[in-house]
Specification:
Largest sheet of chain A: none
Largest sheet of chain B: 2 strands, antiparallel
CATH topology of the largest domain in chain A: Hypothetical protein af1432
Distance between the termini of chain B: 13 Å
Helix content of chain A: 55-70%
Largest interface: A-B, 28 and 22 residues
CATH architecture of the largest domain in chain B: Alpha-Beta Complex
Number of helices of chain B: 3
Oligomer: heterodimer
CATH class of the largest domain in chain A: Mainly Alpha
Radius of gyration of chain B: 20 Å
Chain lengths: 280, 106
Amino acid sequence: MSRLNADDVLGRLRQLPALPTVVVELLASFGDDDVDIGGLSRLIARDQGLATRLLRVANSSFYGLSGKVATINDAIAVLGFSAVRSMVLAVGVNGAFPAGQCPGFDRQAYVRHGVGVGLAARTLARQAGRNAELAFTGGILHDIGVLVLATCFPQAYGEALAYRERHDCLPIVAERDIVGLDHAAVGGLLADAWLFPAALRAALAAHHAPAESTADQPADLIHVADAIAHALGLAGSLDEMVQPVDRTAWHRLGLDQQKIAAVLPQVVAGLDEACLVFSA
Amino acid sequence: MRTRQAMPIDDVEPGSRLAVSLCDVGGRVLVPAGAELTDRLLEALRRRGIDELVVEREAVIDHEALAALRARIDQRLARRFRQAGDGLETRLLYQAVHDFCLEHEA
């Protein structure tokens, strides 16, 4: 099989159905707190799948308001605009890639790892005085390139998974060797194709090489959160592998062992509930 | 040092102490934390359909068991960190996760 290049990926992405309007609008407003909440609420209400899901999430014990949130407006008022935005984005973007037939790909492990990284990145962001919702959304979506490969190029990605297992190498190494592009690069292509804001693009494209991104972008947070999630084995897969922690990211976030120790219990405590909320 | 442990009611030694108050569904305390679990009380709780209790345990530091636990955690983490190199930051992450596992699994 010939290896993929950026045009192959972009061509396949162009064939996907358009993202729901509300997701596109939310992407455009990412990082902008001065948005029309009434307009957002009407957009969500028009998308029945998202509306139902938002109400289910708002009423789940994750937010401690079981049964009290009846309308989209209530959900936004109670959860906060940024929490609703990150939930709709994560669910909308992941939902654009329906289950495929990729041998060796475990979608449940993908979701659990993404949610674990989201929780870890959010906790690290709060600790560092950074945008916590951006970190959370970026964390949940950081491996979207994996989902693109597994659903749009199942055969090539399945071969990469088998190669990774045979050589016990890091996933990005197997992806480059077999597919020709790693999932961070594919995440970057998706971010460009779907006009993701720069911060979200950095979370997807630079989490394996955060030093190539700037300190104001969330790549540092996602990189360390990724290492934490793999170190804790949150995906529940035997093959989990921590990649070397990048020194620049660690220092730019001002981390030490105690700060990491403070993050771990919060990640583990929130995982199961958050997985229910975000599983596809 | 005292620790707490959840166990099936049939495994609770009479004379143990309850570590967490036992409440009914309405939140009313049936048996307060610290109460001695006598034979009679255990029987009454069984009749109410309670099958698990959280009891206080005197933690006896079993050095052998602790060493075995450390070894199990090290083995598990060594596998997850097998491609992570030995940079200082990676080692600090390893240590933080190791300590966390030790605390939660001891």
